[in-house]
Each structure stands twice: as structure tokens, then as C-alpha cells.
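Appendix B, example 12.
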Amino acid sequence: MKKHVHILGGYGNTGKLIAGLLLQETDVHITLSGRNIKKARDMAAELNDKFQGMRVTAKSADAADLNSLKDAFTGADLAVIASSTLDFVENVVRAAVETKTDYLDTQLSTPHKHDILKSYLPGIKESGLTFITDGGFHPGVPAALVRYAAEQFDKLDTANVFSAVKINWKAFSFSESTVMEMVEEFKNFKTIVLKNGQWTKTKWSEYKKFDFGQPVGKTGCYPMFLEELRELPELLPELRETGFFISGFNWFVDYIATPVTFAGLSVLPQKHYPILGKFFKWGLQTFSKPPYITKLVLNAGGLKDDKNKTLTVQLSHSNGYFLTAVPVAACLKQYLSGAVRNPGVWFQANIVKPELFLKDINRMGIKLNIKTNENQKA
């Protein structure tokens, strides 16, 4: 029987791309939902015109209304959460559990979301449900790159992932909740990396200069801890160093908007956070300039056949939202095949089979470049 995938926020920047990729890659039926039923219907009609089979329908759903979500998820095999609904995580998770619907989210990685998922873990396991969190490309891909690297070495010693996000922010519409989620992410920002086998908090001044090649060039990258990385030392006991490092957005956001946002979050009442969000959004849309490209680069080193070996894996695309949607679609292909349908709560980056994951990402349109170098015997 063909699977039915429900995409909450299916007409948004990421949701509509995930829907198109699933229609392209699989034979699933899809329901798009959100509070704006007209947008959902218009997007469903657009996708049905593009893909054969009339496989897309639309439905109204409000994340603030538990009964609305339960009605929307009923009959679906999987709910993909591609909307800015972090304030209503418990409603979404509870609705999925009570309707016995598997789940994948593309929301920001926050302690609140993870705590909610942990609290529902017994019910998720008891119902045999697969819940996948932190979907996208960061989070969502870095730990998978490290796991891929581990398969290429006899002993993986170091594996760092660097990201450059140069997006034409003017080309995308943002809901107020999306902007607020971006601002809230600053509250949870941790500068933690694995050094000598131990998780270590670093200073902002301990940034790394990394050369992304053209057209980005060499730029400073700052440590940003991703929860998906936390499991790696246990999975890969010989790993001594790993971390995720992200470059800035543009000069105004990096040196003015970001410090102001950090300061504002520490001193202003929460009711004033929307002002910070508008200021940050204005900085993104006003000062971001071409060239537009998003890159994710793994640099790894270790031993293979008693020789020192290095490995570089680079993923890139001109559209950051597409680079978010493709890894989700690649993960869902594995889910739909049954390969990663395991009861419990999993990070996308840690449940996928890395080699197939990268091959599918590349085949769906993300540029993939892999380079290796073996030196003298260790």
C-alpha cells in the first residue's frame, strides 16, 4: 500500500520543496496543511500540475489546536513538521503519538523540543513509532558526514565540519514565528567542541579560519554545538576531535545585529523579542549580497592501512532552502524503504545510512565533491 505523508507547513519555503522531492522520488500521497488553507490548496494544485497522479491534497491544521492536529494527522503514516511551530511542540508530538503517526521535524534544535520528545519517548516506543528530529542540513547532515568518514578509515582521529550560508534573504518570505525562532536560537547557542576526546567549551575568539574555495573564499568560522554530535564519541570511541563551525551572514549581521541580539536577549523582557527579530531580519535582507551559495565541508583525518589519510567532503548549492529539503527527502527515502524505521527518537544525522544518504543527496541535485589523500606510513 502506498504511504501517506502529511506535511505541516507544506506550502512554506522548506515544506513545498520537500513535497516536490517526495513526489519526484517516491510514489507517496501527500497532504499539505497549515493555518492558511488557500495557500495549502494553491500549492497542492501547483504540485498536481507538475507531477502525475493527483497525489497531493490540502487540509487546514493549526499547531495551537491539538484537536486540529489530531484530525489532520489521522490516516497519515508520517507527519513531516516543516512549519515554525516550536511554541507548540508538545501539541504536535502528542497529536502524532495519539494518532500513531510517525514523525520527522525540520525545526531548530532546542532544549525545549528535545525535552518534550524525551518525555514522550515511552509512549513512542510502546506504539512502535519512529520519531526523527533535527532534520535538514545543519542540524541534519554534520554528524552523518562524520559517520561517513568513519567508514572510510581504520581509525578516525579528527572530523570537523564547516558551514558557509550565503543566502539571498530578500527572495524569501518569513513569518513572524520563523524570525522569532532564529532569534531564540541565540539563547541556546553553545561554543562546544570535542578536544582530546572531551567536550570542551571554547571562546568566541577561538574561531577557525577556513577556506571554502570560490566564491566564498577564506573566512572565520565560529564553533556551534549541535546535539546530533553528542553521540559521536560513544559511537566512535577513537575520535579525538570533532566540531561544527559556522561562518557569518554579512558584515552588518555579524558585527552589529548579532551582538545587539545577544545583548537584548539577556536584558530585555520577552515581550520585546519581536523587535530584535525585526532588526535581525532587516539586517539579513538589507546587507546580504551575491554571490549566493551554501556550503557544508567535512575535513577528516586518521589512519587507513597504516597510512595517514585525509578526507574532504563538500556539499553545496545556491539555494539554502533546497539544501535543507534534499537531506530530509534522502532520509525519508530510507524511512519509506523500511531501512531506518526503528522505534524511538532519533536525530536525522544519526539514523540514516551515511553512504546511501550522500549518494541520494547528490543525485537529487546537491553538488558533492569528495577528495582523499594518503601520505607516508604512520
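Residues 20 and 47 are 7 Å apart (CA to CA). The chain has a mean pLDDT of 92.
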